[in-house]
Amino acid sequence: MALIIFTLRLAIGILLFPMFLLNLLGLWNQICKKWFPYFLRRFTVMYNEQMASKKRELFSNLPEFAGPSGKLSLLEVGCGTGANFKFYPAGCRVTCIDPNPNFEKFLIKSVAENRHLQFERFVVAAGENMQQVADGSMDVVVCTLVLCSVQNQEQILQEVCRVLRPGGAFYFLEHVAAESSTWNYFWQQVLDPAWYLLFDGCNLTRESWKALERARFSKLELQHLQAPLPVELVRPHICGYAVK
């Protein structure tokens, strides 16, 4: 099986040789960082349509984690275009972090469309190093379709725990690896190297639930599901929340 996967990866590599060459020359990342926000803007419209009920269910208890002032301080890591904004409760104070500065103009548009929120600031930084956010300053941290592309899952979860106040919560919704015995997992393995370059570092075969289980949370509510998406490769999902 490993030989078949290698052969198919090689064939795909030949077909996509210009992209792999640009990556070897150090040019692909610059191109991807510029075009990816435009792709994601279109993709998140479709994703929200298919996943709206799941997102409403997931975020339904956000107000329970509001601080003593009654206001909810929320940090979204890997905010992208702000696709989650409409699911947050009114009056929520939102801070956003993303390593790609090209998302900012799309984020500003989403802020304008979601006046029920109190937007705090946009920080250009990786989730593994959120030094601009103070220790214990957040009631909630949200991460959707992000753990698939971060460089170090353990490190980002350590940062999440650092910025959360005691009793705060981390919400997640992520696509993950399919069951290892399925054809879907076979094709995830075949397409993973090309997918990684095409979609700004996204990995198809990550078992992100394992990193969450190892993290320093006092409580973890985690659910596996098959998302109703047109592309089978990204249907396997996990969602839930963890309490510090």
Question: Can I get a quick summary?
Answer:
The protein has helices at residues 2-15, 17-24, 28-58, 104-113, 153-163, 183-198, 208-214, and strands at 73-77, 93-98, 118-124, 138-144, 164-175, 219-226, 236-243. The chain has 244 residues and is α/β, with parallel strands linked by helices.
List keywords for this structure.
244 residues, alpha/beta, 7 helices, globular, SAM-dependent_MTases_sf, membrane, Methyltransf_11, Thiol methyltransferase 1A
Secondary structure: elements and pairs:
Blueprint: H1 2-15, H2 17-24, H3 28-58, E1 73-77, E2 93-98, H4 104-113, E3 118-124, E4 138-144, H5 153-163, E5 164-175, H6 183-198, H7 208-214, E6 219-226, E7 236-243
Parallel strand pairs: 1-2, 1-4, 2-3, 4-5
Antiparallel strand pairs: 5-7, 6-7
Helix pairs in contact: 1-6
GO molecular function: S-adenosylmethionine-dependent methyltransferase activity
Organism: Panthera leo (Lion)
Protein name: Thiol methyltransferase 1A
